[in-house]
Design goal:
The structure holds two protein chains of two kinds.
Chain A lengths: L1 H14 L4 H16 L5 H12 L4 H17 L1 H14 L4 H9 L11 H38 L1 H7 L2 H10 L4
Helix pairs in contact in A: 1-4, 2-3, 2-4, 2-7, 5-7
Chain B lengths: L2 H38 L3 E4 L2 E4 L2 E5 L1 E6 L2 E9 L2 E5 L1 H5 L3 E9 L1 E3 L24 H10 L19 H7 L3 H42 L9 H61 L9 H27 L31 E9 L11 E11 L2 H4 L3 E8 L5 E9 L6 E12 L2 E4 L7 E4 L2 E11 L4 E9 L2 E4 L6 H12 L2 E9 L6 E6 L2 H95 L1
Parallel strand pairs in B: 7-9
Antiparallel strand pairs in B: 1-4, 2-3, 3-6, 4-5, 5-8, 6-7, 8-10, 9-10, 10-11, 11-12, 12-13, 13-16, 14-15, 15-18, 16-17, 17-19, 19-20
The chains are: A mainly alpha, B alpha+beta.
């Protein structure tokens, strides 16, 4: 029931509670953790940030789950991107060599193609994910939810087992 | 102590340690042998392997590495070898040996058992594309074991001269016919020119008559004299006009004469070409000795070159470049590919900093083989970490006077690999050295002593190798009687010398492999061939020349006479006409002078009369 509780919290938080910025922040940080496939120094750092600042934890959990799936699907693309950055980007070769010889940098596992590719992708998409999620939460709270309730499809589904399950989950007592 | 701990941890651990203790030597030996055989392609055998734990190291009493090209020989064998590994680096999974001592390195010893490893697949695989061995196949394949057709083939000198000359398309005759036609055409043109000049001769005669008709003594007045001078000036102008026309015609005719004379000279050049063609038709023997080296030692040299190229390729394949771009692989999902960057102040995965090799003192079965001593430094799997190339410096001596040196550098510290080898082998007795081939002079040299020096430089994809080999003190054994003059000559020459040198060069600095092979026998064979073939050769050549000259000479004489007669005739006529013009000009000049003098005198007389009349008044 741990995941169900996570989903319930997330759905609740979409409707009310923490600010859209807190929800979006948790979601964006969770996306970094979800995209990174292994335990790395930068992963630990993101965890630290996640725990230290007041962002929505449930949103982070959902994002981790969602982006882990995305990372698995796009793994070959991240591998290719990491290979290009590590091997074919001649201008960066000096930086990589310096980091490779640095005492702590190897703990980031930056020389792994998937770690490099997915981390760069996570950084690139961090701001769009944050902005997109924030806009979505605001929109959801203002009109999406009420508009959804007016749809005939929604009214048909309203009595369906799926929606009943959704409600049960939503109303679970934390 | 807990009983379960004793049963489930302590006792199994003790058993495992005991098993390791008793079997580790065997496991290490099998592992080293398997790794060595995979690298060399022939059996690698270790004896007396012992692993010590403090300090952690390995020693063995004997190592034999079989020659992959000859399973009954060892590439080398060693006596006792010992080394200790850096325990700290071993914990990091790195095999670092600071110093390895190798005693009794001996090259080329015989084996008691066959050391070859059966290759998978029946046929021997062709050299891999991109290797130096594959690249050199084209150049080495040019080495011919058969003499070129016609080389020293005196037996074929029974010439049918008439038939050969009959078949020859004689260009000289065509040139003579052409010259004759031109001479006749020129002669016709000259005759036309001369006809024009004859017409102008009449005009000159009229001018002469006009000049002569002037009687200076009868001219008593100045106007009469000046009128006569004007007449002479007009005559001079007419003569000059005729002279100009004559000069133009003469220049044209002289040009024709020069061209015809030059054409007569060119007949000799065309005749020489005809003779060369006739000689080639007769297949007169070629006295050039280019290619004799290939016939004698080509096959054996190519075999050795391919063997050594194999070693160069092996070094290229097994000593990896410093910073090659790792290939793009497809790892399992979420695993990725680890890219390695150069490490500073670190050890590579495998390193032998210094391997000290001593020759040993064994006087037993191996006393007859070369013992090497020296050192090999910085043997590693990754020079990008050590930043120094692998270097080898070995010297060897043997009681029989044989010497051996090898210096090698395998540099992979930069992206472009660089290999260099210098080796020398001195005074090595050869059981036998095959020369020639089954098609040409099959023979063996026995009892020879060989000295070689080899220099190979392999920067990147380029290759340049030069080898000098001297064979001395040999005795020749021939498998068959000489089949031709060349075989006989070479046998004679080899019978009179006690040593000869072979120089071999293989290079691809121009992009494509090329090869040069020569011996210092070439000049001796050429001189002997000239002496043996000279008389026959000269006789055959003279017969051909005489026949060809017999065909060409009459025609040539005929055309030369024609050209000579016509040119002499025209020159004579031109000279005569020139003399006529000069005569007329001289006559006109004399008359003009006469008239001028008369005019002066008359003018003076007129002035005197005028003064007399003035005084009378």
């Amino acid at each position: 029931m741990f995941y169900l509780k996570f989903i319930k919290d997330f759905i609740n938080i979409l409707r009310e509670g923490q600010t859209p910025a807190q929800v979006a922040g948790g979601f964006a940080l969770g996306s970094i953790l979800g995209l990174s496939p292994m335990l790395t120094l930068q992963g630990a750092l993101v965890w630290l940030i996640l725990l230290a600042i007041d962002v929505n934890f449930a949103a982070a959990g959902v994002a981790m789950t969602l982006f882990s799936l995305i990372a698995f699907i796009f793994d070959p693309l991240f591998h290719w991107l990491g290979y290009q950055l590590l091997v074919n980007a001649g201008a960066l070769h000096g930086l990589w060599t310096w980091m490779y010889n640095a005492p702590v940098a190897p703990l980031t596992r930056f020389n792994n193609t998937v770690v490099m590719g997915s981390f760069v992708a996570a950084l690139v998409f961090f701001v769009p994910i944050y902005a997109g999620m924030k806009s979505f939460v605001v929109a959801y709270r203002t009109h999406i939810h009420s508009r959804l309730e007016r749809w005939k499809v929604y009214q048909v589904l309203d009595k369906s087992k799926l929606l009943n399950w959704y409600r049960r989950v939503r109303d679970l007592k934390g | 102590m807990r009983r379960k701990f004793v049963y489930f941890v302590l006792i199994p651990a003790a058993i495992i340690l005991l098993v390791i203790y008793f079997f580790i030597d065997t496991w290490v030996r099998l592992g080293l042998e398997a790794g060595g055989e995979a690298a060399v392609g022939a059996k690698v055998e270790l004896e007396g392997v012992h692993v010590s734990l403090s300090p952690i190291g390995i020693r063995w009493s004997r190592l034999q590495v079989a020659d992959p090209h000859d399973g009954w020989k060892n590439l080398f064998e060693t006596g006792p070898v010992r080394f200790a590994m850096d325990f700290g680096q071993l914990l990091r999974g790195k095999y670092v040996i600071h110093a390895m001592e190798i005693e009794g390195l001996i090259l080329g010893t015989k084996r008691a058992t066959d050391g070859s490893i059966p290759k998978r697949g029946a046929a021997e695989a062709p050299p891999a594309p991109g290797t130096f061995t594959a690249g050199a196949q084209g150049a080495l394949g040019k080495v011919s074991a058969k003499p070129p057709a016609g080389m020293f083939n005196v037996a074929g000198l029974h010439l049918n001269v008439d038939s050969l000359v009959g078949k020859l398309d004689i260009q000289s005759l065509k040139a003579i016919d052409s010259l004759k036609t031109r001479a006749l055409a020129s002669s016709a043109q000259w005759n036309a020119s001369l006809a024009d000049l004859e017409a102008s001769k009449k005009k000159l005669a009229d001018i002469e008559t006009g000049i002569k008709s002037i009687n200076t003594a009868q001219l008593n007045s100045v106007p009469a004299i000046t009128g006569a001078i004007s007449t002479v000036d007009g005559a001079v102008k007419g003569i000059h006009d005729a002279s100009s026309t004559f000069d133009a015609r003469k220049a044209s005719i002289q040009s024709d004469v020069q061209a015809l004379t030059a054409s007569v000279g060119s007949i000799d050049r065309v005749a020489a070409e005809d003779f060369a063609h006739l000689k080639s038709m007769a297949k007169l023997p070629n006295l050039s000795t280019a290619g004799v080296a290939q016939l004698l030692v080509g096959e054996e040299t190519v075999k050795k070159a391919e063997t050594y190229l194999g070693y160069v390729d092996w070094a290229r394949a097994h000593i990896h470049s410093s910073s090659p771009k790792p290939d793009f692989t497809t790892p399992p999902r979420m695993k990725g590919q680890n890219i390695v960057f150069p490490l500073e102040h670190a050890y590579p995965k495998f390193l032998i900093e210094k391997a000290l090799i001593t020759g040993g003192t064994d006087t037993g079965y191996s006393a007859g083989f070369i013992r090497a001593k020296g050192e090999i430094d910085n043997i590693t799997n990754d020079q990008s970490v050590t930043h120094v190339p692998i270097t080898a410096s070995l010297q060897g001596v043997e009681g029989g006077g044989r010497t051996f040196t090898l210096k090698a550098v395998f540099d992979r510290t930069k992206e472009t690999p660089y290999d260099a080898y210098e080796a020398s082998l001195g005074n090595v007795p050869l059981a036998e050295f095959p020369i020639g081939s089954s098609d040409f002079l099959p023979a063996k040299m026995t009892g020879a002593r060989m000295s070689s020096s080899v220099s190979v430089v392999v920067p990147g994809g380029q290759f340049d190798a030069t080898a000098h080999t001297t064979l001395a003190g040999f005795h020749m054994t021939y498998a068959a009687e000489p089949k031709g003059v060349l075989e006989g000559i070479i046998r004679e020459v080899l019978g009179t010398i006690s040593e000869f040198e072979v120089t071999f060069r293989l290079w691809n600095t121009g992009g494509k492999f090329d090869m040069a092979l020569q011996t210092d026998l070439d000049e001796k064979i050429a001189a002997r061939a000239s002496a043996a073939l000279g008389a026959e050769f000269a006789k055959a050549q003279d017969a051909l020349k005489a026949k060809l000259d017999g065909v060409i000479a009459p025609k040539k004489a005929e055309v030369m006479k024609l050209v000579g007669d016509r040119t002499a005739d025209i020159q004579k006529q031109l000279g005569a006409y020139g003399a006529v013009i000069n005569d007329k000009l001289a006559l006109a000049d004399a008359k003009k002078k006469e008239l001028t003098d008369r005019l002066t005198k008359q003018q003076k007389g007129n002035v005197g009369n005028a003064l007399k009349n003035l005084l009378k008044k």
